[in-house]
Fold:
Amino acid sequence: MNKTAFVFPGQGAQYAGMGKDFYDNFKESREIFQRANEALGFDITKLCFEGPDNELSITKITQPALLTVCLAMYEVLKETQKGSVLMGGLSLGEYSALTAAGAMDFETAVQLVYKRGNYMQNAVPLGEGGMLALLGCTEDDAIAFCESITKRYGLLKPANFNCPGQLVISGSFKGLEIAMEKIKEAGAKRVMMLNVGGAFHSPLMLPAQEELAEAINNTQFKTPCCPIYQNYTALPETDPVLIKQNLIKQLTAPVLWTTTIQNMMKDGFTSYIEYGPGEVLQGLIRKIDPTAQLSGKK
Structure:
């Protein structure tokens, strides 16, 4: 039997117009968008479809918008998928996976990620922290590079291990400035500043983590219908207590996406379906497992 993983993208996959084709063609999708509007108290649907992009990229808007689009697609297509299933998501996408698997109802999830986005946005004043993508360097070189910058200039930490040769580092603006100047020391071929609102998945998110911990601990989680591979451990989990703990730790720890896909491979999963705008995860998975069967629902 073909073993299929459902995967959900994180922040950065958004664009104005995402999800509109599903909204126009499927009742199930329209219902999800309407439920999101009511749960949030503002028109997230209009923002998803019309933008503008600069507003859609604000962290507190991006997070509920992406979760809404992912679930609007999943609700339409979930009954058509056969085979043994597990789920996972990149950073924010982990919340979409948990919602799709029934660990939270949709209203709870969209309100929770709206809070998460607010906490993350407010944790570091604008211009005092950010993220860089390193292309063409090894994990070990990136870790050593971050340690050397942190000791001498300012906080810098690995934030996302996306796939071989592609990592994201996160930290103080001073640390990032020096990293840009000394990038050859990391063995990277290219470096790119990311258009994000803060130093996500780094210790600079500690204030947000404390607020998020309270919100998560006050949220009822159910046992998901299938294992969820979590970013913090890269391992499958079904225990609601541990799922909560890992979601909280995720905010200041690196996203172990490469190891997550490698662990899915070890567990016999050969097919991946991405639910969400774009094909970001398919591109990453292809670099981790060139033999993987990939498709997207966008």
The mean pLDDT is 93. The radius of gyration is 18 Å. Residues 2 and 144 are 40 Å apart (CA to CA).
